[in-house]
């Protein structure tokens, strides 16, 4: 590495460290959007056995290939559908159900990673066993790869933030499905500010989430 490249790399690393330090000093606070949806349509109950959140996290400095990914189950949830269109909804995810798909064949490393993610360093699932997402507005998207824009309040570790997701929503014979576009959220917005030692590679602030819902018409 020449002197110029070394200087650029060192500057980038110092900037990253400075950003981490500043973020740790800034407390995470809740922000919410008003719920503007109606609930005039048919109620559908979330099929918790066939619905999930898919998550992905990355390290920086070392390599983009240094990542982990897995799933989180839903504890409960319901949506309303009106004339085949999504109208409203609220979901509760069971944070204690978090799994690591990429380490499924390495039980020791899997247990180590999930144990750390559930600890107070990250999601503190003993104190905050659930996370929620409540839909605040729904808009049709007539063009593009997704037919619906869903806005809502995401609550993790007792902290709420408004987010907007693109999604494909469909309904047929009493079964509704929702598949959102993978979305990056800033974990530090929700008070998840832990960083590993530099030698192990800094963890990206962004974590990627995708919501996959299957729901059945209530009888």
List keywords for this structure.
single chain; 219 residues; alpha+beta; ten-stranded antiparallel beta sheet
Short description:
The chain is α+β, with helices and mostly antiparallel strands.
Q: Element order, helices and strands?
A: HEEEEHEEEEEE
How far the N terminus sits from the C terminus, by CA atoms, comes to 67 Å
Return the structural class.
alpha+beta
Please report the number of helical segments: 2
Q: What quaternary form is this?
A: single chain
The low-confidence parts are 3-23, 197-201
The whole-angstrom Rg is: 19 Å
Spatial shape = globular
**Chain-averaged pLDDT:** 86
Task: Give the biggest beta sheet.
Answer: 10 strands, antiparallel
The share of residues in helices is 10-25%
Query: Got a strand count?
Result: 10
Q: What fraction of residues sit in β-strands?
A: over 45%
Topology at a glance:
Layout: H1 3-25, E1 42-46, E2 52-59, E3 67-82, E4 85-100, H2 107-118, E5 130-140, E6 148-156, E7 159-172, E8 175-180, E9 183-186, E10 203-217
Antiparallel strand pairs: 1-3, 1-10, 2-3, 2-10, 3-4, 4-5, 5-6, 6-7, 7-8, 8-10, 9-10
Can you describe this structure?
This protein is an alpha+beta fold and 219 residues long. The chain is 16% helix and 47% strand. The chain contains 2 helices and 10 strands. The protein has helices spanning 3-25, 107-118, and strands spanning 42-46, 52-59, 67-82, 85-100, 130-140, 148-156, 159-172, 175-180, 183-186, 203-217. Strands 1, 2, 3, 4, 5, 6, 7, 8, 9 and 10 form a 10-stranded antiparallel beta sheet that branches. The radius of gyration is 19 Å and the shape is globular. The termini are far apart. Mean pLDDT is 86; it is low at 3-23 and 197-201.
